[in-house]
Specification:
With 325 residues, the chain is of the alpha/beta class. The protein is built from 14 helices and ten strands. Helix 2 crosses helix 3 and helix 12 crosses helix 13.
Length: 325
């Protein structure tokens, strides 16, 4: 089966692509010109041969699409006219009610239902969320990602997953660096505590590797619960304790790299992905590419080469070589 290629709107967030001098300038321009923003994104996707799109935080968010096109249905028609479609929407932590606050469940559910209603009208079936971030190591009092914490997160996930399922939408969880769903142990614990009918997984190969984990091993263990995956490469595991605040995403950036230039075993990852419910979509994630069309084409080439040469049981040797590097 030949998969569809997709990408996250973040791919198009580099100010150079827009002839602007900063990320703030891009956000301001896109807020004031939502229709030109989306039309250029669509044209670039079509040029790169990438037909699927994941919405995310502003400027490429649901609200921006609604300002530009008036409705999810019209947005869907505009995409379809270019051979494109929405695959998923990502819920950024800064753009949604906080899961750590005990009284927030009604707001969390309402927010998820709003997004799910948009996705259903837009022709998409996946809402991708994350768990809250960890606290900076050494913070007092300490914050532990323990069984009690993960049970609370599982309880919320069940309520949200059931709510969005009424719209025909699946809830999948992304393995974000420095979040409480980052280490292999975090993922295994959360998956064990959640019902597979309502809670799915969206593993990110880069972020799992940044936590010192083996993304292929994660994909193989949880293969039947993977509704979508983010294909992204890592330079090496994060080897320092980062300050977890609004700058943490920028701090992580130097550890990320274009597909095929890092430590992810793409042959083994492609093989594992081919055995999942999400096998029909390959979402190539490239944060803020200055030339997104070229970067997406290069990413597609890496994926196609990996799929053309399936793994032959040499993943363990790959991991050993990376450990020696």
């Amino acid at each position: 089966m030949t998969p569809r290629f997709a990408t996250d709107v973040i791919t198009f967030y580099h100010p150079d692509f827009w002839g602007l001098d900063s990320a703030d300038a891009l956000r301001d321009w896109a807020r004031d010109h939502p229709r030109p923003f989306w039309e250029r994104v669509m044209d670039a996707l079509a040029e790169a041969g990438v037909t699927g799109l994941e919405l995310t935080f502003a400027p490429g968010d649901i609200d921006s699409a609604l300002r530009a096109f008036g409705s999810a249905a019209f947005f869907r028609r505009e995409l379809a006219a270019r051979g494109l479609s929405v695959v998923s929407a990502f819920v950024a932590g800064s753009d949604a009610p906080d899961w750590r606050q005990g009284g927030n469940l009604p707001a969390i559910v309402a927010d998820a239902e709003r997004r799910a209603a948009f996705l259903a009208e837009a022709g998409a079936e996946l809402l991708v969320a994350g768990l809250p971030m960890r606290a900076t190591f050494g913070t007092r009092p300490p914050f532990f990602v323990d069984a009690a914490y993960m049970t609370r997160m599982a309880d919320i996930a069940h309520v949200v997953g059931e709510a969005v399922s009424r719209y025909g939408v699946k809830l999948a969880f992304h393995t974000e660096s420095n979040s409480t769903l980052w280490y292999e142990r975090d993922i295994d614990l959360f998956m064990a505590l959640t019902d597979p009918r309502y809670v799915w997984l969206c593993p990110d190969s880069c972020h799992i590797a940044l936590g010192g984990g083996d993304p292929v091993a994660v994909a193989r263990r949880h293969s039947q619960r993977i509704a979508l995956a983010h294909w992204k490469d890592a330079v090496k595991p994060i080897d320092v304790e980062l300050t977890i605040d609004d700058t943490v995403f920028a701090q992580q950036q130097p550890y990320m790299t274009e597909l095929g230039t890092g430590i992810v075993d793409w042959r083994a990852w492609a093989d594992a992905m081919s055995r999942t419910p999400g096998a029909d979509i390959v979402l190539v994630e490239l944060d803020e590419a200055a030339d997104p069309v070229a970067a997406l084409r290069a990413g597609r080439a890496v994926v196609e080469a990996a799929r053309a040469r399936p793994t032959v049981g040499d993943h363990a040797a790959h991991i050993e070589r990376q450990g020696q590097a």
